[in-house]
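anyone else get weird line breaks when pasting these?? whatever heres mine. first is seq + tokens for prot A
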Amino acid sequence: MVKRTPEQAEETRRKILAAARHLFETKGYRDTSIAAIVDEAGTTKGALFYHFSNKEALFREVWTELQLEMDAETRAAAAAAISSTDPYAAFLAGTRVYFKWASTEAYQRIVLTDGRAVMGLERWQEDDDRLGRNNVANGLRYLAKQGHISEARIVPMSVMLLNALNGAGFSLSRKDPGVTADNLFEAFEELLRGLR
């Protein structure tokens, strides 16, 4: 047996993740087989199971990867939008990025739909909260420093706003009539600017 270098092993892992992400996005978790993933990745089942204990563990890694990519883009947009004249600009720039991601097939299927089914609602909420609520709380902390909200309301408001954003994402994924990323953003901006 040929011993693989750490770099080769990492490249194999990346190929498996990319193949799984593509198939989970286009076919869904349930209709994606391990055989299809390794075929698309150009590797073996043994290699897949070397890196991931099972299909659910692989899915969770893809789910987390997608969330972290969205999170990084959200943070970058917020940092770029900090304004001396509009204390809400950074928070809203991050929110617009979230709505952009929540409008994509990949995010809708992997994070919002299959994520809850595969991970279970309680685990999904825990992981989503761990990844997302800190960003919301940071935006609220900034608003509190500017005197727009009370420090005491940061935690409860972060819970409520994160769930409002998730609810909007679910609405986009269901393609609810009359709901668009743009009008959800406008409604969220009105809500955020109305906080006192």
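and prot B, same format (seq, then tokens)
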Amino acid sequence: MAPSIPQHDVYSTGDNSYGQLFGKPSIIDNEFVINNGLKTTLKNEKFITQIGAGDDFTAFLTHDNSLFVAGYNASNFIGLDITARKIKKVQNSNYNSYYSSSGTEFIVDEPTVVNTKKFKTETITHLSCGSNHISVVTNRSNIYICGLLGTGFVQLGNDKFPKEYLKSDNNFISMVGSGLNFSVFVVNLRDVYVFSKVPNEYSNTGYWIGQTATSQVFFKPQKTMVYMKKTGFEEDGIIDLACGKNHFIILTDQNEIYGMGSNFEGQLGETAENKYEDRFVKIKLLEPSLRISSIECGALFSAYIAGNKLFMSGSNQYGQLGLGYKTKFMGFTEVMTIYEDFKISCGRNHSIVHLVKSNQVLVSGFNGEAQLGIGTGPNVRTFKLIDMKFDKKIAHILCGRASSIIVTQSGFREMVFKQKLFQVQSNYCKFLDISIRAHH
């Protein structure tokens, strides 16, 4: 997905327990409303080029290379100094008790710029949010990770990331995706590198090891970092990447999807014989003659769009696949046919579909925290059109753990020019709306 065109209005709904939706911590309105906190910060001076969400934080990049974050930030969780004025200490009993029982948490409830010197001198080309960490790539080659390697953003140096992928100026990081305690980097549209850390291990001892890694180590609770490089797509070329909680999938220019990681819920379709796949498996497509336009992952499920059809596989416990009351699909199943261009974003237990021409939104899945934007009430088990008209063209749809964000475009001519310039400067970089994904 390319960087969006200039934006002006941001709508949000769902859980805001840590200010991740830019406002006083609460469960916010039960329908999509214009996010005045974000609008006040940006005014008409900046526009968003990339945006992503983790479990309880949101991050976005503006056209002037500023990285903003908001949400849960204990121990520099999202890269902000905990002594900063905008970080507030609140009683845990009043908010989400997901992280600790210490009685206090640190939150950032308005967009705040990450003040890192490197981000002032290097152009941010990729932004990716995992469940509890952020990965940033600058100048298509330098990797910074916050949340897995201690406090603040830590650069992966020569001792933590093998530099052989940068033997010539023609090599670059083209895609980034993140899940639960891991990030995936696609280099040169061919090689796949994985940086992984197990849950609840936030020491400074992380490092890259070895040349191979099994998913049993990669995704199971081993107290180590894991580095894994996968080649073999030299003839194919990787054109899209999506990450779930404990799995990820890639799309090649040969119209094939490969996956790795957990298949407990069928998120890799019916191809995997083992519960964990420690190497790429080719995913069986329901209608292989249809050209695939995009792929996406939720926490425990996967989706792809081919032709004018949506296919999904994996957990459907809350109706997030839009396929009724069956709780699991071990194999991709056609969800629906839509006779116009559309896009999909997936969260932990809900999904959003953007109808491009109609400029409308369909939702399905868990609605316990009003993340579907249709009021409070029962879960939705087949995709439902929300009763809301957007007066500007939708540019981004995004799912967090229990929240949803819709960003609409503005029409400033100057910003359109800057956006086009930004795309040219980025060369072949691949920008992704983030796959996010959360614990239960």
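btw re prot B: Helices lie at 36-42, 117-121, 215-219, 413-425. The chain has four helices and 30 strands.
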